[in-house]
Amino acid sequence: MNRWSSIQKCTNKFCAFLAQVESLHPSGATEQDKIEKAKLLYKEMEKSNFTMEHCWCLLRHQPKWQQHISTLGTRRRPQGEAAIDTMEENMEVFTERPLGKKTEKEKERKRKSMEDKESKISISLAKMTEDRATTMEERRHAALKADQRSEKIFELKKKKFELEKKKFECKMMMLDLRGMNAMQVEYFRNIQLAIFEDSKFHSGDRSNSPSTPYYVDI
After folding, report:
1. Do residues 117 and 50 touch, judged by C-beta distance below 8 A?
2. Which one, out of 67, 95, 163, 186, has a CA that is 20 to 30 A from the CA of 145?
3. What are phi and psi of 207, to 5 degrees?
4. HSE of 200 in the Cβ direction (CA atoms, 13 Å)?
5. Pseudo-torsion of CA 68, 73, 74, 75, nearest 10°?
6. Which tens digits make up the pLDDT trace of 185-204?
């Protein structure tokens, strides 16, 4: 058998199988889908792959070849009808995509996308809440430390004031009034008396408060 005879034999069989696939009118199938199904049927029936596709592609649109295939199909029609039954048993039948399937998938995709966004938003809000709580706690801690520091400063100032007051009171009580005029003596005696009364008040002994002013012997 020469080369052309081999090509013609293989392509004739393939064309017969392709015609059988096309006779089923598979819904939604493209031309390439039909070719692939014909190749599967060829392999199923001939127990080998169709290796002459490149030759068939060159011949398929030639007028003489189309006339030849038309004549061949008319002669082999009875045999083709039996092959169709075999093909239906061994090949996947094209089925139309259920209505709404694409819409349902798109809806599911949007739902998952929305869930992902909501999850990210929830995580972000939780993080913001946590950060805010941390910031507020840090502020409270800083404010507490500031209050404690202010309190310590106040206590130090208070102690310093008390110390200065004691020094002043001691100085006033030890002040020698001799050599002062009457006005100066009265002024400093009043200060000494106030210091004395204040000292008795803080010591809790009010009953011994003198009925007459305390005078320094000058």
Report:
1. no
2. 163
3. -70, -25
4. 11
5. 90
6. 999 999 999 999 998 888 76
